[in-house]
Design goal:
Elements lengths: L1 H31 L7 E6 L6 E2 L1 H8 L13 E4 L5 H11 L3 H13 L7 E2 L3 H10 L3 E6 L7 E3 L1 E2 L15 H10 L2
Parallel strand pairs: 2-7, 3-4, 3-5
Antiparallel strand pairs: 1-5, 1-6
Length: about 180
């Protein structure tokens, strides 16, 4: 009986070690290899001198707080249509607002005469063209939607391709968006 216990204990120990490797070691590797195409990317014109912004500036720009580029140009925030997956993800991650809270925020700002909401641009192609052509324009898209004419902005010095970049749109939301645009 004793000889049977040892192989069972060894088998259990090996199984536990294999599970540990799968969940902990594999999880670490999986996190460091996140596909950057699903990242939310803040963009400016390729002619802009802006290449990096602190998170707080991005937040302020899109909350309507007057903010200026290094060249003294006021930033002009452009947003995607309300309740699109990219807009919902951006508002949640950068502004800490869900769609209803974002709507209430802008109604409150208008009533109090404080700030005007960003201009809404329908469609990613038009958004890219406006950002590329308009001085001071700043917007956001998915990383896989980057094209010549616009450049990504590093947030707090972190490039969107870095494993440390934390602003993403969920894969489920991307699939929903792609199905909706077909």
């Amino acid at each position: 009986m004793r000889s049977r216990c040892k192989p069972t204990i060894v088998a259990c120990a090996l199984a536990l070690y294999a599970l540990w490797l799968l969940f902990f070691e594999g999880g670490v590797r999986a996190q460091s290899q996140v596909d950057p195409r699903g990242n939310l990317v803040v963009i400016v014109s390729a002619q802009s001198s802006t290449r990096a912004l602190p998170f707080s500036d991005v937040r302020n720009i899109f909350l309507g707080v007057p903010t200026y580029s290094p060249g003294g140009e006021p930033y002009v925030p452009l947003v995607q249509a309300a309740k699109t997956p990219v807009r919902v993800a951006f508002d949640a991650q950068f502004l800490d607002l869900d769609p209803e809270a974002a709507g209430r925020y802008w109604v409150d700002q208008r009533i109090r005469g404080r700030r005007t909401p960003p201009r809404t641009i329908a469609g990613v192609e038009l958004l890219r063209r406006v950002v590329a052509a308009m001085p001071g324009a700043i917007g956001y898209i998915r990383a896989d939607e980057l094209r010549p004419g616009v450049v990504p902005v590093k947030i707090d010095g972190v490039d969107f391709r870095s494993p440390q970049y934390q602003y993403r749109i969920s894969l489920a939301a991307q699939d929903t968006e792609r199905l909706a645009t077909r």
